[in-house]
Amino acid sequence: METKAFQKIYTKIENITKATVSLRATGVGNDELATVGGHLAQVVKIMGDQVTLQVFEGTEGISTDAEVVFHGVPPTLKVGDGLAGRFFNAYGQPLEGGAPVEGEEREIGGPTVNPFKRRQPSELIATGIAGIDLNNTIVSGQKIPFFADPDQPYNQVMANVALRAQADKIILGGMGMTNDDFLYFKNLFENAGVLDRIVCFVNTTENPPVERLLVPDMALTAAEYFAADKGEKVLVLLTDMTLYADALAIVSNRMDQIPSKDSMPGSLYSDLAKIYEKAVQLPSGGSITIIAVTTLSGGDITHAVPDNTGYITEGQLFLRNDTDTGKVIVDPFRSLSRLKQLVIGKKTREDHPQVMNAAVRLYSDAAGAKTKLENGFDLSDYDERALAFAKEYSDKLLSIDVNIDIEEMLDTAWALFAKHFKKSEVTIKSELVAKYWPEA
Amino acid sequence: MKTTGKVQGIISNIVIVRVDGPVAQNEICHITVGGVNLMAEVIKVTGKDAYVQVFDSTRGLRIGAEVEFEAHMLEATLAPGIISRNYDGLQNDLERMESLFIERGTQTDPIDYEKLWDYTPLAKVGDVVTAGDWLGQVRELWIDHKIMVPFVMTDTYTIKSLTEAGSYNVKTVVAVLTDSKGEDHEVTMVQKWPVKKAIKGYVSKPRPSRIMETGVRAIDTFNPLADGGTGFIPGPFGAGKTVLQHAISKQAEADVIIMVACGERANEVVEIFAEFPHLDDPRTGHKLMERTTIICNTSNMPVAAREASVYTGMTIAEYYRAMGLKVLLLADSTSRWAQALREMSNRLEELPGQDAFPMDLSAIISNFYSRAGLVHLRSGATGSVTFLGTVSPAGGNLKEPVTESTKKAARCFYALSQQRADSKRYPAIDPLDSYSKYLEYPEIVEYLDEHIEPGWAKNVMEGKTLVQRGKEAAEQINILGDDGVPVEYHERFWKSELLDFVILQQDAFDAIDANCPIERQKYMFDLVMDVCRKEYGFGDFEECSAYFKALINLFKQLNYTEWKSAEFDNYRQQIDTFVAGK
After folding, report:
1. What number of other Cβ atoms are within 10 A of residue B355's Cβ?
2. What does the alpha-carbon distance between residue B375 and residue B369 come to, in Å, rounded to a whole number?
3. Distance from CA of A103 to the nearest CA of B (A)
4. pLDDT, tens digit, for every residue of B275-293?
5. Taking the model in full, what pTM does it have?
6. Which terminus of chain B is less hemmed in, N or C, by CB atoms within 10 Å?
7. What's the CA gap between A390 and A360, in Å, rounded?
8. Tell me, what's the pLDDT at B285?
9. Which of residues 357-396 of B touch A (CB under 8 A)?
């Protein structure tokens, strides 16, 4: 801490790039914060007495004689109950003025939870959206992103999920969010009367991109405070992680690192994993659930960002415009919740797993029939029925405007099976068919 | 005297240390920061500067920090008490760590040094022994854990004295050995071994000659994994790699299972932590945890330790193999390990190979896979390490460097297909792309003839052809339309669907269907093949599809019912009647 007592001021910057500066300095710790000409920066590399700093706001206007002061500590956030209901920038400073939060100062991006101390996620998070609850049930302690094209209403769906999810705290980490979207979230939370449960860390498109790198760690440090210290159920919303990755790429590019796939840094997987793996079910009952957004370019999921994300998160939710019904649906083929096995048929009705699979399989048969139709072939009777089923399934269950409870979803599915198919065509265990098949 | 040094440079978790004495490649050192010691490994030396990769966060580390070199490489501690433990990549026992968060520099003992074991000597005074020979044994859970001449002692020794049977802790000297120069060596129950080197100490390493049952039909029946063999499972995310690996870890016919969760999701490991202590091993009746060791270096844990974790796992596997046990090593996922290598190589500013991976990736992978295998030990016993890794190819593209390099090294290839996963046909092992080289081994074919039924390998090939022909027929139907092809094409297609639904697909979450013993696999496969060998001559394609759909439904019920129960026989009867009725 001696640097704090005798803060040494450096005024001789030797190199400046768009995102970094370097200078000669001694006694500097790795990862620690500094101020460069009034802008916040962080140590990213030390070679002898040569120190490289990443300047979050960018280096525009920084001159070689700018004052550089090292803080002696890595980025921190003051955590306390006062965080609730507040809006912060990427550095954890309150937006729109207001008093700073009182509390303990904690390093962001801190150590990981011992995997052995984790508990198995087992609490279902009901959202009312059948595309999620029925086919891709979300569980507390899970991490799952929406894979969406930029024009899809992912922020709206995410906000709906957040409001219905009955979390103790909702923490929004906005990265490169447009001001309009930020105001949307803000108004929505205000109107729903849940402001006291909300904490926001926001970097809008008006702010410099590199600042975004702090947002997830800030949001998750706050989340860990509420989950680990207070034993609360915390839902963290991160939007948009693709823009976060872009910021990583900018910095690594400026530092002359060799890019790997899609110009992303070679460490992208670890960088993303460090964030997503903060999702946890703690023995105390507290939990952190992360719902994120990864925007795709042209629906390409093989791009490095969605691809690496898919390997880290416990599934993904795809939104798709369904041309048959004109609604936005949760795509049953490409969406997946890996943790659903922990709750479906256990916390929900016994027929849940089989009904879910049968419906998706029949929907897939309809997709096959559709291809046939497009290629100009005659449809069999089964094909016709599958198509009719698919349309209703899409409208009554997959659409994101559905808001019903899970039993109702299951009953709806059985009703659709009975309307369009014979018992033998659904290939469900006969005991379940006997119990739930609605007799006309 | 130990070599020491001072920190000269820091780039993320690579630290450059100016040293005052000799250092070795891969030597371990400790860096002092804020009162804690960070473990690191030398990965490059230039002049007086050693480049070390730190197995922890370097946050707050300053130039000039003290470094002490340990004069040995990264080692695993091998002793009774490893089974059922949960380690991190550096063999720290996670269970012994007290705090919720893993604080930097935390180290815990991999084994209990005080616990008493019932020891029985196996050798006699005067015996001539060498590395890996059995001196005695203790009972570890239900395993006869052999106490061996340490693998580093490669000379020949005469046993000078042996401790009598009794209850001892692992630090007790159990034998004194005299080497060829007349010097005495004390041997305890603990030994150390550098993880990046293969443990030898066996007589020979023959070709695998039997299969390892996994209870997964698409593997055992279609592409069997050999005991002492190697295999890998590449697949895009969501294709079910981990579910498949977990199923194998529960059901495989092995004495000891080492699971390495390498850079994967923590919740998946938690699933094992939560389930394995309660699940029974169907073969021995013990709990699954009593044959399992977990090495867990999840994706948020330090990258360098991720690289170490697969080696730690392999070393422990080789140790138990030397006791004449069948060990199955599972690593999920080797791509994360390769990515850790890439991150290191990138920070060292090495010239990159394809996709920025290090140039020697292929050599590193094949070297690792070659550590698996069946061995004949000097005691006459046989031990094996079977290795099954998963690969997570970027974008699901199998033409990427890790998949390609692994394909050269592994003998079984279980390609998971996105298309099968999308249509929820699990396990999504592609029946046509996947292969097992072991089906071509004459010793394996002979084994199958003897243990399953004569001509089994030929029957399996017939099944594969059936799937191939079904796929061709399906393509024709798609191009020409249902009416545009002869009805035989539909019949061919539906026969392959029958095989797919009944044999290839398996419900990993159904209590009965999840695990299909080889006897049941044989029964089902023969039954399906009998149905498929029949020519039906349907009037039209609708009749054909309706017929097979009904048949598939009956077969599925058969898969869901308890083996040889009354209900099972009932469904079997229904199938016979149904088939005879046509």
Report:
1. 15
2. 15
3. 20
4. 888 888 877 888 999 999 9
5. 0.91
6. N
7. 9
8. 84
9. 392, 394-396
Q: How far, in Å, CA of B269 to CA of B327, rounded?
A: 20
**Cα-based torsion angle of the residue sequence A83, A84, A88, A92 in order, rounded to the nearest 10 degrees:** 20
Q: How far apart (Å, rounded) are the C-alpha atoms in residues B521 and A28? A: 65
Task: Tell me how close the Cα of B43 comes to any Cα of chain A, in angstroms.
Answer: 18
What pLDDT shows up at residue B38? Answer: 93
In DSSP notation, A313-370 reads SSEEEEEEEETTTTEEEE-TTT-EEGGGGGTTTTTS-TTHHHHHHHHHHHHHHHHHHH
Distance of CA A355 to the CA centre of its chain: 28
Residue A440 pLDDT greater than 70, yes or no: no
Banded model confidence at residue A351, pLDDT cuts 50, 70, 90: very high
Name the residue with tokens 């780039």: B11
* Residue A200, min C-alpha distance to chain B (Å): 24
Neighbouring residues of B353: CB distance < 8 A, sequence distance ≥ 6:
B359, B361, B401
- Phi, psi of A84, deg, nearest 5: -60, 140
The answer to whether residue B86 neighbours chain A at the CB level (below 8 Å) is: yes
- Has residue A258 got a pLDDT over 70? yes
Burial class (CB in 10 A: 0-12, 13-18, 19+), A185: buried
* CA A210 remoteness from chain centre: 19
A3: confidence class by pLDDT, cuts 50, 70, 90: very low
Give the pLDDT of residue A2: 38
**d(Cα A118, Cα A280) in Å, to the nearest integer?**
7
pLDDT tens, position by position, B150-196:
999 999 999 999 999 999 999 999 999 999 999 999 999 999 999 99
Which phi and psi (to 5°) does residue B191 adopt?
Answer: -140, 160
CA atoms within 13 A on the CB side of B318: 29
CA distance B445 to B441: 6
Output the CA angle A366-A346-B219, nearest 5 degrees. 60
Cα→Cα distances B510→A239, A340, B400, Å: 37, 15, 35
Q: Which residues of A touch B298 (CB under 8 A)?
A: 112, 115, 273, 277
Per-residue pLDDT of A123-153, as tens digits, reads 999 888 999 999 999 999 999 999 999 989 9
pLDDT-based confidence at residue A6 (cuts at 50, 70, 90): low
Shortest CA distance from A257: residue in chain B: B346
Distance CA(B428)–CA(B568), nearest Å, equals 26
Question: Mean of the pLDDT values across residues B211-228?
Answer: 95
Nearest to B403 by CA among B348, B438, B355, B350: B355
Q: Residue A332, preceding bond cis, omega within 30 degrees?
A: no
Cα–Cα distance, A89 to B570 (Å, whole number) = 68
C-alpha to C-alpha distance for B106 and B108, rounded to whole angstroms: 7
DSSP letters spanning A138-158? EETT-EEEEEE-TTS-HHHHH
Do A32 and B58 make contact, defined as CB atoms within 8 angstroms? no
Test B550 with A424 for CB contact under 8 angstroms: yes
Q: Do A67 and A10 form a contact (C-beta atoms < 8 A)?
A: yes
Question: Could you tell me which residues are beta bridge partners of residue A78?
Answer: A105
pLDDT in tens, A175-201: 999 999 999 999 999 998 888 999 999
**Mean pLDDT, rounded, for B1-24:** 92
Split at pLDDT 50, 70, 90, the class of B394 is confident
> Which of chain B's residues have a Cβ under 8 Å away from the Cβ of A342?
271
Domains and CATH numbers, chain A: 9-70 (2.40.30.20), 76-342 (3.40.50.12240), 352-436 (no CATH)
Measured CA to CA, the distance from residue B195 to residue B76 in angstroms comes to 6
